[in-house]
Write the structure tokens for this entry.
Amino acid sequence: MAIVKQILPGVYANIIAGDRDAALSARGTVAMALDLDWGAPLTTLLRGNSTIAPLGYDLTDPKLKLVREVMQNAGTLLLYRLNAKKGQPAQGTLALELRADNAELMAKLDALSDEKTNLCAGIEREFLKRIGGNCHLPVAAYCDIVSEKDRGNDSNKNNRLKLLAMFGSEDGKQLARTEQVWDMTSDRNDIVERAVRDIRYKLEID
């Protein structure tokens, strides 16, 4: 510590760090939040780990540019997904079962039921069923109702059903995505069937 000439009352100190131990690692833990289209709400990545299974993309993909730059100097990355609502099919859906002859309770529950949510959740679950998804395979589906205005058109009258889906092999080395936009009057089975066929074609699955 070196004492310098004082101008104002108090103590002035110049702190000089000692030599750094070359054996110490400069890599630590970094927390970051990103808007991603695949992955859990919180993903822990260790340096050298593959990002295909947890994030849906190889680390060299442009969408993971920020992740790639962080992992150059970090040992561990805590990655928070900002848009985590888009994920597993029908995630967060609440279902209630009751007697068919209980009209009073049925009427009360109808007030809680949302027609659009039922439609989207049904499409997501149907995709999961037809693609053959299970707990061991990377699979995702997100259905939403979008307006022409959301898609860049000033008109807000004609809504569309939009299905985003992904499916891959168990090891995560093969992944395929599809996006389907259909009229609200379309048969939901046709929407799911087109999504399944598109993914199977991209993965070369018979």
